[in-house]
Amino acid sequence: MAQMNISIPDKLKNWAEARVAEGRYSSTSDYVRDLVRRDQDAEEARQRLQAAIDAGRASGVSSLSLEQIITEGRKRRGA
Q1: Phi, psi of 13 (to 5 degrees)
Q2: Are the C-beta atoms of residues 17 and 28 closer than 8 Å to each other?
Q3: DSSP state, 22?
Q4: Hey, which of 12, 35, 37, 71 would disulfide with 8, CB 3.0 to 4.6 Å?
Q5: Please, where are the H alpha helices in the chain?
Q6: What is the DSSP letter of 64?
Q7: Which residues lie closer than 8 Å to 25 by C-beta, 6 or more apart?
């Protein structure tokens, strides 16, 4: 496993240590790893959403009414 040294303000250090003291994490390193994983997951979700937005914009203007679009969406979801 790679090592990384970081500098953070005392307030953030105290926050991370409090999470460990609560028993939520085994160490401050565990806490930071979790934060990085969550950030990575959020970025991947953002990229998927952006790709869907881009695909929607590229698909052009629909000739369907709003009601028809809603009905089609419900059919696809099985609702």
Answers
A1: -60, -45
A2: yes
A3: T
A4: 12
A5: 10-21, 28-58, 66-77
A6: S
A7: 19, 31, 34
For each successive 10 residues of the chain (79 residues), what is the average pLDDT? 94 97 96 97 98 95 93 88
CA-closest candidate to residue 16, choices 6, 3, 30:
30
Residues 26 and 16: their CA atoms lie apart, in Å, by: 11
Cα 24 to Cα 15: distance, rounded to the nearest angstrom = 12
Place of tokens 């959020």: 42
Nearest residue to 16 (alpha-carbon basis) of 2, 5, 26, 3? 26
Which amino acid is present at 67? Answer: E
